[in-house]
Amino acid sequence: MTLSQLEDTLPNGLHDAFLMGLILSFDQGTASLKVRLLVSGNGEKARYEDAEIRLGGLAAVVVEGPERVSSIPAPLGICSFETSEKHYPAFSQVPEEIRRLFHSLYVESPWNSFIHIAAASAEIVWDQTELPAGNR
């Protein structure tokens, strides 16, 4: 399953999610996205759960720098979409078999920039620890 396919299995996809951390291992060809995902349904009070999205067969990662640097540590709001040349101008130069693996994240304010990731596999591991009541 690719990251795009994984997103389709989530109640709200990666919409209104938070990126808590990103770990890359180029020698192992893996990436790990620590995320807080919106899991509540329509009409429910917003409810988030922590998870790790593990990516394997890493082919490329493009991280655009932030538009504005913030000194206050905080999770980054994200949403995701299919990668295109509109947001990644070099996309057409990538071989077709790798283009099919790409998925993009828009990182909200203060970054206002993009992270583009190409990985052959994706799996989600839900954090089993309880969040404090104010963060659910």
Describe this structure in words.
- By secondary structure, this protein is mostly beta strands.
- Helix content is 8%, strand content 44%.
- It has two helices and six strands; from the N terminus they run αββββαββ.
- It has helices spanning 3-9, 96-99, and strands at residues 17-25, 30-38, 48-63, 76-81, 102-107, 113-126.
- A six-stranded antiparallel beta barrel has the order 1-2-3-6-5-4.
- Strand 1 and strand 2 (30-38) form a beta hairpin.
- It is globular.
Summary tags:
136 residues, mainly beta, 6 strands
Oligomeric state of the chains present here: single chain
Mean pLDDT: 92
Largest sheet: 6 strands, antiparallel, barrel
| Radius of gyration over C-alpha positions, nearest whole angstrom | 15 Å
Distance between the amino and carboxyl termini: 28 Å
Number of strands: 6
User: If helices are DSSP runs of H or I spanning 4 or more residues, what is the number of helices?
Assistant: 2
Instruction: Report strand %.
Output: 35-45%
Order of strands in the sheet with most strands:
1-2-3-6-5-4
Which descriptor suits the 3D outline? globular
Helicity level, as a percent range? Answer: under 10%
Provide the succession of SSEs.
Answer: HEEEEHEE
Q: Output the structural class.
A: mainly beta
Q: Low-confidence segments, ≥5 residues, pLDDT <50?
A: none
